[in-house]
Q: What sequence folds into this?
């Protein structure tokens, strides 16, 4: 364990499995006070148990449906009640998307649910956590990229590129809005221990 993130409060979504679980355990290992959330309560509890067994600090809100604004706000409220602030937000959660060739893709049954599960859940969490991130002396935000177009079937690549461009615009908007308060938006938490440089005061 290192202390590079010691004292920082990190809210990480999708901690029940995959990238979210990995981020939660690494952040905790680096000394952060991790607060996770997931729609799957059993998996969320398992991640908390794994962190505790390793001697790390972690809390979790579950089940949390990130497509519902009320659930998202409840999660943020619990973080604030527990820790009083949010220094880091990692948007790691995503639904399992459904794919189909464009001509065969149902707008109502495939496109809309997938975009809600990829883009809306990021917006809702950023919106709820934003005032607390701005209040932090050294906030950081990371929204993880999803399936890269280079790994996708040719008929799916255009859809993925469009989705990521949409999310990239959101990231730029957040970076611009956070600029006056020295808030940084980063593309990935791969090297968080190296990236974490508190902004100069004054």
A:
């Amino acid at each position: 364990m290192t202390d590079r993130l010691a004292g920082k409060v990190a809210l990480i979504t999708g901690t029940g499995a995959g990238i979210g679980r990995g981020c939660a355990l690494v952040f905790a290992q680096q000394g952060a006070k991790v607060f996770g959330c997931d729609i799957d309560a059993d998996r969320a509890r398992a991640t908390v148990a794994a962190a505790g067994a390793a001697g790390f600090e972690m809390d979790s809100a579950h089940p949390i449906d990130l497509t519902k604004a009320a659930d998202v706000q409840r999660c943020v409220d619990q973080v604030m009640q527990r820790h009083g602030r949010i220094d880091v937000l990692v948007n790691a959660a995503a639904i399992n998307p459904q794919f189909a060739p464009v001509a065969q893709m149902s707008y109502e049954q495939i496109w809309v649910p997938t975009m809600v599960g990829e883009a809306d859940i990021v917006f809702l969490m950023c919106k709820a956590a934003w005032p607390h991130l701005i209040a932090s002396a050294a906030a950081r935000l990371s929204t993880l990229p999803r399936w890269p177009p280079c790994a996708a079937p040719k008929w799916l690549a255009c859809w993925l590129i469009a989705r990521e461009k949409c999310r990239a615009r959101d990231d730029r908007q957040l970076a611009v809005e956070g600029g006056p308060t020295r808030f940084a938006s980063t593309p990935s938490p791969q090297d968080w221990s190296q990236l974490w440089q508190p902004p100069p005061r004054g």
